[in-house]
């Protein structure tokens, strides 16, 4: 018999072990190591309650209901998210996932969430079926799609010479400029948080670069986050496409211009973008910012630089032509109350893929 209850702090080690045994398939197969504190990543995003499914004393399923504040233009919203949904392989296809989702949805309603959202990788067809309204969970519809572009790190050369701007690491004094730039490039996107990222970063997990024109005017920026202290990606099996990238990076390591990607079972070290934007010379600025981050990531012994963008973001086709692996995901959602307006079809929604 399978029972479902709310997880307590004492369940942290069991949840960490369960996530470490339940792979995510997105082409390359991996598991997430959330030790030593399962809730550390969740606390970065808002308030949450986690539910676990047990057979005797063994965890066979889990889900987290998470809620936080967001914006819809000038209006505030409470956004609910479904995260960390996992079911052990032998119970997939049963009603267990639906039962977990029902608990999470009820929790979000009790928390006063205006919306329920769920970010799902496009290759995770089982999860898409669960949010289609046929499993007792509210029917969620597609809102926005996103690309996570993974650049294996190598010692990227400088960008185009004679560019009409300079790129440098951001300092604490650049906080107003980064805030103004990020607001200018994210304005109009539904569900953006009141503050996109912490800068200056007291924990030292964020790195930022800023582009300035010849007059010293900020015209672009990039902020990346190192999740190693709260979440580690352990590769189980590479896809055929990513296996080719492994060979390429191994050859680059022989030439001294790159480092090899990790062996299966090891941790993939990456920096993930929280925000990338440009208000002038977008193609050149985007290229130069990514190159600057690539060089810094190489110095920090990272394996991958992950750039996350909404698919309609004009900067997406302006990425440098480095070897890459791209993953696609979709944000699904619906209002939890009748008086909450629906977004129009053309709305672009914000989602922070770095914190997933």
Q: Any key phrases for this structure?
A:
single chain, 356 residues, alpha+beta, Aminopeptidase, 12-stranded mixed β-sheet, 4-stranded antiparallel β-sheet, 7 helices
Describe the overall structure.
- The protein is α+β, with helices and mostly antiparallel strands.
- The chain has two domains: 169 residues, Gcn5-related N-acetyltransferase (GNAT) (Aminopeptidase); 180 residues, 3-Layer(aba) Sandwich (Aminopeptidase), CATH 3.40.630.
- 23% of the residues lie in helices and 35% in strands.
- It is built from seven helices and 16 strands.
- It has a twelve-stranded mixed beta sheet, with helices on both faces.
- Helix 7 links the parallel strand 14 and strand 15.
- It is globular.
- The mean pLDDT is 92.
Number of domains: 2
User: What percentage of the residues does DSSP assign to strands (E)?
Assistant: 35-45%
- Structural class designation: alpha+beta
Strand order of the largest sheet: 1-4-5-6-7-16-8-15-14-11-10-9
Number of strands: 16
The helix content, as a percent range, equals 10-25%
**Overall 3D form:** globular
Q: Calculate the terminal CA-CA distance, rounded to whole Å.
A: 31 Å
* Count of DSSP H/I helices: 7
Specify the CATH homologous superfamily of the largest domain: Gcn5-related N-acetyltransferase (GNAT)
Overall pLDDT level: 92
Q: In CATH's first tier, which class of the largest domain applies?
A: Alpha Beta
